[in-house]
Automatic annotation (TrEMBL), chains A, B:
<keyword id="KW-0238">DNA-binding</keyword>
<keyword id="KW-0678">Repressor</keyword>
<keyword id="KW-0805">Transcription regulation</keyword>
<dbReference type="InterPro" id="IPR009057">
    <property type="entry name" value="Homeodomain-like_sf"/>
</dbReference>
<feature type="DNA-binding region" description="H-T-H motif">
    <location>
        <begin position="31"/>
        <end position="50"/>
    </location>
</feature>
<protein>
    <submittedName>
        <fullName>TetR/AcrR family transcriptional regulator</fullName>
    </submittedName>
</protein>
<dbReference type="InterPro" id="IPR039538">
    <property type="entry name" value="BetI_C"/>
</dbReference>
<keyword id="KW-0804">Transcription</keyword>
<dbReference type="Pfam" id="PF00440">
    <property type="entry name" value="TetR_N"/>
</dbReference>
<dbReference type="InterPro" id="IPR001647">
    <property type="entry name" value="HTH_TetR"/>
</dbReference>
<dbReference type="Pfam" id="PF13977">
    <property type="entry name" value="TetR_C_6"/>
</dbReference>
<feature type="domain" description="HTH tetR-type">
    <location>
        <begin position="8"/>
        <end position="68"/>
    </location>
</feature>
<dbReference type="InterPro" id="IPR036271">
    <property type="entry name" value="Tet_transcr_reg_TetR-rel_C_sf"/>
</dbReference>
Length: 211, 211
């Protein structure tokens, strides 16, 4: 199916153009025409793939989440055959922070998407849908840690998982506003994890890809 | 100085129009002309007060922060003559969440401002400037709590204060995305405070304006 592959490749190219705009001047006020120009194609051709800015943003965000997921999985695999829950959690949470150029672009597209999603139920549903899955996964890791005696059982809850997700969102905000740098944000995340689990064992912190 | 008062009143009116747009269709793509139309004045007249969208956003955000500050102070004063640090902290943090229609509009303007600030150093500086002051105030409250024996001294730090600020930012995000409701967000905040301080004393939680 060579034609389908070409369409996908073209969508990725357009998405790349969107990312470049997101990482420089931002997407507020950026039109489909602007993205077409950045991608070096006509507006008509772009609209063959994405009819609206929202459709394009949704595609770009899905692609970014997929890439972030790949990064996080690689980071967990690098931690060894059977990583324990704490480094898995840390790898996931660190993977959600804008710590380098790539993850920063992802976060910037996320910000643009979020600014529109708060006024659009369909975009909001898409942004929201991944969260219960993530929260359940984090809660599973917390329960696993409690079973292994690495966490007080009373802390192995969905609510503690949601605190982790919320905290990382806020830490990201203040990286983008230059309140703290990526390294400081990571240290704040580690402080929260140390409050939750206790001080890290030797080498545990670095095992899942210390930045 | 009647003339000056009029100018200020006009700025507030324009700001009100901006808030109405922010709370309905959002500010992404909203032009100065749109705001002028909503305020029922000409574009030229609006530009007499605000030359750019960014100037207008900065004014609206300052005004919103001022109103939020007033709300929080009222809530602290309602807690009694000498409120202890924990209810003061809770009142401040709850006051930063979009729990009702007014604070929700404030948060929505904040989102629009943030989406532009990530690409503009001047807007970013303005958004960022209040944070160290807030962090220092929260850290002072934590130290006061430690002195009173209500908090482990090791937790009375600027970093713990920054965790509180970051957490509230993330909790707000997920209210706006309908991941959780205002009441659930408040319960998550209370969970974090209980993890920090221990379970609340009878009536303490509600003293600073339980929602």
């Amino acid at each position: 199916m060579p034609k389908k592959v070409d369409h996908e490749a073209r969508r990725q190219e357009i998405s790349g153009a969107l990312w470049r705009i997101a990482s420089t001047r931002g997407l507020d006020g950026a039109s489909l025409r602007d993205v077409a120009a950045e991608a070096g194609i006509s507006l008509g051709r772009l609209q063959h793939y994405f009819r609206t800015k929202d459709e394009m943003l949704a595609f770009a965000l899905r692609r970014i989440n997929q890439l972030a997921g790949d990064r996080i999985r690689a980071s967990i695999e690098a931690a060894g055959a059977e990583p324990s829950p704490r480094p898995v959690l840390r790898a996931c949470l660190a993977g959600m922070l804008p710590l380098d150029a790539k993850s920063r672009i992802g976060t910037l597209v996320g910000v643009a998407y979020f600014a529109r999603a708060v006024h659009d139920e369909q975009l909001r549903a898409e942004a929201r849908d991944g969260i219960p899955v993530l929260r359940a996964f984090f809660a599973d890791q917390l329960r696993l840690a409690a079973e292994r005696g690495e966490l007080a059982p009373s802390r192995a809850t969905e609510d503690e998982a949601m605190l982790l997700i919320s905290l990382v969102d806020g830490l990201s905000t203040y990286i983008l506003l230059d309140v703290h740098g990526p390294q400081q944000a990571l240290e704040l995340l580690d402080l929260h994890l140390a409050n939750l689990f206790g001080p890290p064992a030797d080498g545990e912190k670095g095992a899942a890809g210390d930045q």
